[in-house]
Write a structure and sequence with these properties.
Elements (H helix, E strand, L loop, with lengths): L2 H7 L5 E3 L7 H4 L1 H11 L7 E4 L1 H8 L2 H16 L4 H14 L4 H13 L6 E7 L15 E5 L2 H13 L4 H9 L9 E7 L3 E8 L10 E8 L3 H5 L5 E6 L5 E5 L5 E5 L5 E5 L11 H18 L3 E8 L4 E8 L17 E4 H4 L8 H17 L14 E4 L2 E5 L1 H4 L2 H14 L4 H10 L10 H15 L1 H10 L1 H13 L10 H36 L6 H7 L7 H17 L2 H9 L2 H9 L5 H14 L19 H11 L8 H24 L3 H17 L5 H26 L14 H8 L5 H15 L7 E3 L13 E2 L2 E3 L1 E4 L2 E8 L13 E4 L15 E4 L7 H9 L3 E3 L4 H4 L5 E5 L4 E6 L3
Parallel strand pairs: 21-22, 22-23, 23-24
Antiparallel strand pairs: 1-2, 2-5, 3-4, 3-5, 6-7, 6-12, 7-8, 8-9, 10-11, 12-13, 14-16, 14-17, 15-16, 18-19, 19-26, 20-24, 21-25, 25-26
């Protein structure tokens, strides 16, 4: 009898041959489905069948098991401490449950079709297993060397029960997988009498390098390698040449062997085996086979293999490597490329929507065009901008290979993203592919001169230094005036016109801020031997014309007016932010709160979390977050901590410090004193506009978003989109196709699913190489028993309770607490008014969080690795913003 015959005798599809196309994820689980793909691709997989998820459902449908499963699901979701006890009871019940006779018969007929009493491997195959985003490796059970009727049926039941073992339950909870939606198939495969077995990764799982395969192998069955019982032979192989790049031979003291009568035995050696268990020819053959498997699935794979006594390689499992960061689309370049994360640079760990990437492409294309480098297709954007993992990266390779470019980059980067600097320095020192390419100084000078001439940047900067009042007035007027494209244009044409108009705004505002920065740099040099870091920080606090600090103070004033109205206070204290937002939309909030928020949103409604993503909602769209901040401001009782008073005090202290430094510089050198006064005055007049270019960008993106939302509503009304917001999961070309009638709904669903997956990603690389490598620079900044180190960002020292915040929408930050965050953007800065100090995992001295922290005079340390994990919430910490040191004084809340 064949396996197909056994399948036809089953009253339901309880049994499927592995090669059957019906052997899918939902019917058989991930392991079985992937093995079926390999078999149908003609690859060497031991024959077998799957006891499908329908069989598991039949067992789970029995009244006692069903009731316990339902209780388990509720307990798992609630995090009940009785989880382990109930799981143990459930497993015992499933193992003891007799199989229905017809199901038992179907399993045995399929087993007999493999051969009389052949030894088989019985392996769990869950529907939440071997997925692109969650491998579930080793979470359910496997039984090897199973022979005979009784042993096989017992192993099948134990596999079903293992769906509810403690490690699988915990893994599902960590990956937010609904326990009630998970089912289990069981793979039954003829055993390979393995002389050697192990695991092959078709990409390096430690570095991410897609051009390296990594192989662990040992004697006997692969169980010893997978379970970690043995020190295997370890090989790293160049996939292009087959050369073994790294060879580390393990002692191979343990081997698991198959017993002829069924089961396995564990062999232990006294001494180490110093010979390799695989020849280089076999290693190359296996790596080539692995490349074929990767081609079948279209992604790097984690493969289990076995080598039998006749020298035949068998594949026993393949699953995606879920830990790799995605590569930019397209083939891997032959030469080395270095990509720098613009997400990390902007303090935005979450992914971009596809329309957000489109906005970045158009904006950068507009800036390049303004500099004299236009693109034939601005919608496609500049080629140095790439997308990987729904995040935006810039290709630094041409800059790093240019002698002048690399010098300038290494000079600027420490101020913007300090933790990326050692990575780049390490790459430049170690990678011969990044050595400088000789470049003509005359050519470089001509190009720079051309950019300066087209943008008139030197003249704009000199004009600002000569007449700062006029330059600041013009810049602030531009900040308040959004771009005005022709009203007669099609909405999509308006979007392009708005985003291309951003470059014009940059050229009005940026030169003023640059003039202030130049004045500050020269003054700092003149005062190098006369002023401390704290004194210099004091001189540049509370700068005027900063749109971010103006926004924060406007929100504070709104909160203060609301506190003067009893009805507003009652609403803020008694209603949740979502209900307050609903009442605001209906115009039913108390007058001061309703009118104050309306005015605030008219001025700043374009801002929001992840605001550089065109697809991200603005405060005007979702103002609920603001109510939480306003409520927090209302709890600040000490009038001396009121942000407006703190800001005025900082202005007075800054003016006094300018006078002190001027007099100090003038002692013995009156000319130096006059220069310092002039430069510090220019700095204070203009340097606050350093946040202006971001304000212009966000304003333009918000206006473009309004026009896109209009098109989204039209497409949703026509049925082309399921919802108007779906338009932000397309780019402009795809929107045009949708307007022409092309179907895009499936594409949107896939993009939304990908976006939800990327939101769960815990680590985003600062630097990504074109072969997938995520480089590191060696040891991270020092950590001892009571402290962490980062980059000093705002001078001063403060001691207080740490409040770890991952999402500012639910921050609950109280006055005097120290904000510990992965990164910040302007939407976080209202929290700075309450914070006593700041610790960030990302950024440099000129990153957004550092700039605003200095404005408010709160000590700050940035670029502290894993600060949100290493600093317990509520711990007493000391932040030294002068030395870049964070000390843990007590971990107890």
């Amino acid at each position: 009898m064949t396996i197909q015959d056994a399948t036809r005798t089953a009253p339901k599809p309880w049994i499927l041959p592995l090669a059957d196309p019906a052997n899918t994820l939902g019917d058989s689980g991930g392991k079985a489905a992937n093995l079926g793909v390999l078999i149908r691709a003609g690859l060497p997989v031991p024959p077998g069948f799957c006891v499908t998820t329908a069989a598991y459902e039949r067992i789970a449908a029995s009244s006692e098991v069903h009731d316990l499963l339902a209780g388990m699901a509720r307990v798992e979701q609630a995090g009940d401490p009785r989880l382990a006890e109930l799981a143990s009871h459930l497993r015992g019940l499933i193992v003891a449950s007799p199989l229905p006779p017809d199901l038992e018969q179907a399993i045995m007929q399929a087993y007999d079709a493999l051969g009389p009493e052949v030894p088989v491997a019985v392996r769990s195959s869950a529907t939440a297993e071997d997925l692109p985003t969650a491998s579930f490796a080793g979470q359910q059970d496997t039984y090897l060397g199973i022979r005979g009727r009784v042993a096989l049926l017992d192993a099948v039941r134990r596999c079903w029960a293992s769906l509810w073992n403690e490690r699988a339950v915990s893994y599902r909870a960590a990956n937010r997988i609904d326990p009630q939606g998970v089912r289990l198939g069981v793979v039954v495969q003829r055993m390979v009498d393995a002389q050697v077995a192990g695991v092959l990764f078709t990409a390096n799982p430690l570095t991410g390098n897609r051009r390296e395969a990594v192989l662990d192998a040992s004697l006997g069955l692969g169980e010893a390698v997978v379970s970690g019982e043995v020190n295997p032979d370890h090989f790293v192989v160049d996939r292009r040449t087959g050369a073994v790049l790294e060879r580390r031979l393990g002692d191979k003291r343990v081997a698991i062997r198959q017993l002829e009568g069924g089961g396995t035995r564990r062999e232990e050696r006294e001494g180490a085996d110093s010979s390799a268990c695989m020849t280089d020819d076999l290693i190359r053959a296996l790596v080539q086979l692995g490349s074929t498997v990767e081609g079948v699935f279209g992604a790097p794979q984690d493969i289990e293999f076995a080598l039998d006594g006749e020298g035949t390689l068998w594949l026993t499992q393949a699953r995606p490597i879920t830990t790799l960061y995605p590569l930019p689309s397209g083939p891997i370049p032959e030469d080395r490329h270095v990509y720098f994360s613009l997400n990390v640079f902007q303090g935005m760990l979450q992914p971009f929507t596809p329309m957000g990437v489109q906005g970045m492409r158009l904006t950068l294309a507009s800036l390049m065009a303004a500099a004299g480098f236009p693109f034939a297709d601005p919608v496609a954007g500049p080629p140095f901008l790439v997308e990987a993992g729904m995040r935006v990266f810039g290709d630094l390779t041409p800059v790093l290979r240019h002698p002048f470019g690399r010098r300038m980059l290494l000079r600027v980067m420490p101020h913007m993203e300090a933790r990326s600097v050692p990575i780049v320095e390490h790459l430049l020192a170690e990678d011969p592919e990044l050595k400088p390419v000789p470049a003509s100084r005359a050519t470089t000078f001509r190009r720079l001169a051309g950019v300066m001439a087209r943008t008139r940047l030197p003249f704009r900067i000199l004009g600002a230094l000569w007449n700062p009042g006029k330059a600041v007035a013009r810049a602030t007027a531009r900040l308040r005036r959004p771009p005005q494209p022709s009203s007669g244009r099609d909405p999509l044409e308006r979007v392009q016109a708005i985003l291309f108009g951003i470059a014009e705004g940059f050229l009005v505002v940026a030169p003023v801020a640059i003039a202030g920065a130049i004045a500050w740099g020269v003054a700092e040099a003149l005062l190098s031997d006369l002023a401390t870091a704290e004194e210099l920080d004091t001189a540049r606090r509370a700068l005027p014309n900063n749109p971010t600090t103006e926004m924060d103070l406007a929100l504070w004033q709104l909160a203060q007016h609301a506190q003067e109205d009893a009805a507003s206070v009652e609403a803020l204290d008694s209603l949740e932010p979502a209900e307050l937002e609903a009442r605001f939309r209906a115009g039913r909030l108390p007058g001061p709160l309703q009118e104050g928020l309306t005015r605030f949103l008219e001025a700043y409604g374009q801002r929001g979390l992840a605001e550089i993503d065109l697809g991200a909602p603005r405060w005007a769209d979702e103002p609920a977050y603001l109510f939480g901040v306003i409520r927090g401001y209302g709890r600040m009782r000490d009038p001396e901590l009121a942000p407006d008073r703190v800001f005025r005090r900082a202005e007075t202290e800054a003016d006094a410090m300018v006078e002190t430094l001027t007099q100090r510089a003038a002692r013995g050198n009156p000319l130096r004193g006059r220069l310092v006064r002039f430069l510090l005055g220019r700095m204070r007049a203009m340097f606050g506009l350093r946040e202006g270019h971001k304000f212009i960008l966000v304003t333009g993106l918000a206006q473009a978003r309004t026009h896109l939302a209009q098109v989204g509503r039209e497409l949703a009304g026509q049925g082309a989109l399921e919802a108007a917001e779906d338009i932000f999961f397309l780019d402009l070309r795809e929107v045009r196709l949708a307007r022409e009638g092309r179907p895009v709904r499936d594409l949107v669903r896939q993009r939304r699913a990908d976006y939800a997956t990327e939101l769960q990603r815990r680590q985003v690389p600062r630097i990504l190489l074109s072969d997938g490598t995520v480089p590191v620079a060696g040891p991270t900044p020092s950590q001892d028993q009571d402290g962490l180190s980062g980059a000093p960002a705002s001078a001063g020292t403060v001691t207080g309770r740490a409040h770890v915040v991952l999402d500012p929408r639910n921050a609950g930050l109280e006055a005097g607490q120290i904000l510990v965050a992965p990164s910040t953007d302007p939407a976080w800065t209202p929290l700075f008014l309450s914070a006593a100090g700041l610790v960030m995992e990302m950024g440099g001295a000129m990153s957004h969080g550092a700039v605003v922290a200095r404005e408010y005079g709160i000590p700050a340390v940035v670029g502290v690795p894993q600060a949100t994990e290493r600093i317990p919430d509520g711990a007493l910490i000391e932040v030294d913003g002068t030395s870049g040191r964070v000390r843990l004084l007590g971990s107890e809340p």
